[in-house]
TrEMBL record:
<dbReference type="InterPro" id="IPR036097">
    <property type="entry name" value="HisK_dim/P_sf"/>
</dbReference>
<dbReference type="InterPro" id="IPR004358">
    <property type="entry name" value="Sig_transdc_His_kin-like_C"/>
</dbReference>
<dbReference type="Pfam" id="PF13181">
    <property type="entry name" value="TPR_8"/>
</dbReference>
<keyword id="KW-0472">Membrane</keyword>
<feature type="repeat" description="TPR">
    <location>
        <begin position="232"/>
        <end position="265"/>
    </location>
</feature>
<keyword id="KW-0802">TPR repeat</keyword>
<dbReference type="Pfam" id="PF02518">
    <property type="entry name" value="HATPase_c"/>
</dbReference>
<dbReference type="GO" id="GO:0000155">
    <property type="term" value="F:phosphorelay sensor kinase activity"/>
</dbReference>
<dbReference type="InterPro" id="IPR036890">
    <property type="entry name" value="HATPase_C_sf"/>
</dbReference>
<dbReference type="InterPro" id="IPR005467">
    <property type="entry name" value="His_kinase_dom"/>
</dbReference>
<keyword id="KW-0812">Transmembrane</keyword>
<dbReference type="InterPro" id="IPR019734">
    <property type="entry name" value="TPR_rpt"/>
</dbReference>
<keyword id="KW-1133">Transmembrane helix</keyword>
<keyword id="KW-0597">Phosphoprotein</keyword>
<dbReference type="InterPro" id="IPR003661">
    <property type="entry name" value="HisK_dim/P_dom"/>
</dbReference>
<protein>
    <recommendedName>
        <fullName>histidine kinase</fullName>
        <ecNumber>2.7.13.3</ecNumber>
    </recommendedName>
</protein>
<dbReference type="InterPro" id="IPR011990">
    <property type="entry name" value="TPR-like_helical_dom_sf"/>
</dbReference>
Length: 692
């Protein structure tokens, strides 16, 4: 009993000291390293379950940005204790933090489950009844304030989850929802987090000025409130924007500020990010020794906290350093480690599960809505006995609730459709990348035996011709007619083998070219400039090749188009493929027209001028790219086949049938559509529709 009393006294002394030294709102309070050591000792010796619950909460916060696996264990233990003690607010707090840690660890399905469970509790005003330790989660001593703080942080964490799955607009919507609630609560720490998170979400949308404004506002709140936990991360975010703008001097300054700040605040996760950012900046500036040192520092930091995502990024950066140095073996070693870790994390499968969970949540909400409608029907029936006046009042309430539910349902359905579209694009990009790798492997394996077929058929053809020459010189033609016929048959067969082998070789070469994938990362791109460059490149390539023709090219590009999110390396292939197909079609029509004769029996060369028209425009908020030629058009009987792999109308070995198939896949990976309008004898138009 004496030991128990001593432990309780030590606990209250320690918690009071934390509150004195900490921020205004105790919710954000974290222990120092020395205090964390004391809490671990107290956790082993105390028998009070409520005290154990709070100690696990504090230790979870301490390790949250230092070692996520350890933090996850402490919050899990706290969750079990809160359930046993029937402390709903503490249970919601643990679920909320477990959801945040799962988002950082790329366990998106788990994150969604935890955050939904936390929101269900924190949204219920009755959950704060009979709450233990109110003063440990709020400074005003009101249990409902603690509930609202957790609900506020939960909305913020939903934004973080959407940020990590690439749904930046939805993330910003959550942050704005949280900001509206915080305008009432006035939590200074949450001001820091919301401005920081909004800045991070504006950056990938290409809104650099908005991003910098939000991040600098977050710095101001950080300094005024004294909450410096994420200050190093904010410096890192600003550095990334300057690096994107090619202002390497400012980028380096903020990365170095991030390193120094994170060392001072003991934030190893953000420190690792700062080291890797410096390393990549040094690689761009060809300072490879400095790049290696920074990358190695990042790897050491992430190995210390056993962070899988950080380790994967460190391996990737070290591979880039050694590749730039020309040390291929070392680059390959780190690339293999990155690939192995990426496979283990199995991110694609987790994103698919996240989509399924979103559907399950939609179904759950629909079931809840049905139950509400049934309940309202019962209320309406009971109200009939109370008189016409009460019936009218209840009917008005039901009508208002139905309108609200329809609005909420429409919002939820729209959010779900946006989520489904984002996930479909991600899956299509991963599928295209995997298909490219598989195609490259198959093509490499086929190419060697194919070379032997072509080479030996060519050599055999030459040997047959030599035999025929010798026989003509040494034998009587009348006596060797049958053998010569056989040799001619062999010669004809060898020519066919060589011709079809050459076609197969062309297909394999084309497969290898199409298997080269881009970075897989969409970036804001000047589509008009890209079209000018690659239409011109395709034209000059045609002029330098076999059977060149003159083409009248017209560019009608909308100057109001702006930047479009594209995987630049992939989309250039779309432009080149469609232009090359148009040139081939117009070349065929030109030679066909030139072969016709006028009434005088002379070839008429002046009745056909090849024309290519490329245009861009905005249509109902969508970007459209049109490539139109005045070639022979596409016959109706093959319109449904031209997007199939290996289908071609070109003669001999001229075409592989892969160009339009790959083009279609790339457009789909961008979340777009490819449509074809063609009139036989009048030309064809390929229209690409993209989201802005």
């Amino acid at each position: 009993m004496k030991i128990f009393k001593i432990n309780i006294i030590l606990f209250f002394i320690l918690t009071n000291s934390l509150m004195v030294l900490g921020q205004k709102n105790p919710y954000w309070q974290e222990p120092t390293a020395a205090e964390a050591d004391s809490l671990k000792i107290l956790l082993q010796s105390t028998e009070n379950d409520s005290v154990k619950m709070y100690i696990n909460w504090q230790l979870g916060w301490f390790y949250q940005e230092r070692n996520r696996y350890t933090a996850f264990e402490y919050f899990t233990a706290q969750l079990l204790q809160a359930k046993n003690l029937k402390q709903k607010i503490w249970e919601a707090g643990a679920l909320n933090q477990l959801g945040y840690i799962s988002s950082l660890s790329q366990n998106y399905p788990g994150a969604l489950n935890y955050l939904l469970a936390a929101r269900e509790i924190a949204s219920d005003p009755n959950s704060s009844l009979n709450m233990w330790g109110v003063h440990l989660l709020t400074d005003d001593g009101i249990a409902n304030s603690a509930r609202l703080t957790i609900l506020l942080d939960n909305i913020n964490h939903f934004g973080v989850l959407n940020y990590f799955v690439g749904n930046f607009e939805k993330a910003i919507a959550y942050y704005q929802e949280a900001a509206e609630l915080n305008s009432v609560i006035q939590d200074e720490v949450m001001f820091v987090l919301l401005h920081m998170n909004k800045g991070e979400s504006y950056f990938p949308l290409g809104k650099n000025d908005l991003a910098k404004t939000e991040l600098r506002t977050a710095l101001d709140y950080s300094q005024s409130s004294g909450y410096d936990k994420y200050r190093g991360l904010i410096y890192w975010d600003i550095g990334k924007i300057y690096e994107k703008e090619n202002n390497y001097r400012e980028a380096k300054k903020y990365y170095e500020l991030s390193v120094a700040t994170n060392i001072e605040s003991d934030s190893p996760d953000f420190l690792g990010e700062a080291y890797l950012a410096l390393a990549n900046l040094y690689i761009k500036k060809s300072s490879l020794d400095s790049g290696y040192q920074s990358a190695h520092n990042g790897l050491s930091t992430y190995m210390l906290i056993n962070d899988s995502v950080g380790l994967m990024n460190s391996y990737s950066t070290l591979a880039a350093v050694f590749d730039a140095r020309g040390q291929i073996d070392s680059a390959y070693y780190y690339m293999k480690k990155e690939t192995a870790l990426k496979s283990a994390m199995n991110r694609e499968e987790r994103v698919k599960e996240f989509q399924v969970l979103g559907l399950n949540e939609q179904l759950r909400l629909n079931e809840m809505e049905t139950e509400k409608v049934l309940l309202q029907s019962r209320i309406r029936m009971y109200g009939l006995a109370a008189g016409i006046g009460v019936l009218f009042l209840i009917s008005m309430i039901i009508y208002r609730n139905n309108i609200r539910q329809k609005k909420n349902k429409a919002i939820i359905e729209k959010s779900y459709e946006n989520l489904k579209s984002t996930q479909a694009q991600l899956v299509q990009q991963e599928k295209l990348a995997s298909l490219g790798q598989l195609t490259a492997g198959i093509a490499h394996e086929i190419k060697n035996p194919l070379n032997f077929v072509n080479n030996f058929s060519e050599v055999s053809l030459e040997l047959v011709e030599e035999i025929q020459d010798i026989r003509r010189k040494t034998q009587d033609v009348n006596l060797s007619g049958e053998e010569d016929e056989i040799l001619e048959d062999i010669k004809g067969n060898l020519k066919k083998i060589h011709e079809h082998g050459s076609r197969a070789n062309g297909i394999v070469t084309s497969m290898l070219q199409h298997s080269r994938c881009g970075s897989g990362k969409m970036e804001p791109t000047d589509l008009n400039a890209l079209i000018k460059e690659y239409v011109n490149l395709s034209f000059h390539g045609m002029r330098a090749g076999k059977n060149p023709i003159d083409v009248d090219i017209e560019l009608d590009l909308d100057p109001e188009l702006g930047n479009v999110p594209l995987i630049k390396e992939d989309f250039t292939r779309v432009i080149i493929n469609l232009c090359n197909n148009a040139f081939d079609a117009m070349r065929g029509k030109k030679y066909e027209v030139q072969s016709t004769k006028n009434n005088d029996g002379e070839i008429d060369n002046g009745i056909y001028v090849p024309k290519l028209r490329v245009s861009t425009f905005l249509d109902n908020g969508k970007v459209r790219l049109s490539i139109e030629d005045n070639g022979p058009g596409i016959p109706d009987e093959i319109k449904d086949k031209i997007l199939q792999p290996f289908f071609t109308t070109k003669k001999g070995t001229e075409g592989t049938g892969l160009g339009l198939s790959i083009t279609h896949d790339i457009v789909k990976a961008h979340g777009g559509e490819l449509s074809i309008n063609s009139t036989s004898g009048a030309g064809s138009t390929f229209i690409i529709t993209l989201k802005p």
